[in-house]
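Predict both folds.
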Amino acid sequence: MKRYPTAKSISSLLDTCYDFSGFKTITLPTIGFVFGNGVTVDVDATGILFQQSASQFCLAFAGNKDDSSVGIIGNVQQKRLQVVYDVAGGKVGFAPAGCQ
């Protein structure tokens, strides 16, 4: 993302923003959530950026203080995922699909 000019943050949570005015195309990094047992859930490109205005976008991720803090996979990242909760088994599963 270093090739794109930064923009003013829109909140204390979404603090990594870019100005894409003047760009016809952009290239996004590949992002995945890595869980125990080597399981990786790839984030669809639609779950990487949050659009603030016609040309301003922010990374749709917020940091936490340390590894012991709660992590949340938000609705932006889940847009193209089916999420299955096995409450009794204490597991959660992910598969490509979800809302468009």
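Second protein follows, with its predicted structure tokens after the sequence.
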Amino acid sequence: MTATKLSLRPYLPADAPVLAALFRAAIADLTGEDYDEEQQEAWSAAADDEDAFATRLAGALTLVALRDGAQVGFVSLKDNAHIDLLYVAPDAAGTGVARALCDAAETLAKGRGTLKLTVDASDTALGFFQHRGYEAHRRNMVPLADTWLGNTSMAKTLGEGTGR
């Protein structure tokens, strides 16, 4: 993907089908070194019910990354304190999309008084969050369908502010 200008905007209900497909593609194409096919299928099934997926996105502060008018990633900030979802289209991986989305989520959380931001990072995303200053606190095994997925609960102190 060429390095054209990236823009961010709030989630719109019309984004749901595209972001559900992006979510599934990111899991299928980017997590294979860390999760097997059964785990990937169980994980991506979270977007099979697009209405429920849309409700999840709408229930958080969700930002969509656009490049040349196309959705290339998204982040959902839940309760101003937890990164619930952070996904990038496979062809946009490594181009700064995740960094821009995470920067925005951290800035918004801090601006809303959050002192500590948390995330349950997949094994694939663990290094990304560690590089950003998140510290691992707990290893988790999450049951999905007939399999288990590992992730790591992490937190980052955002600095001075009020609230959490």
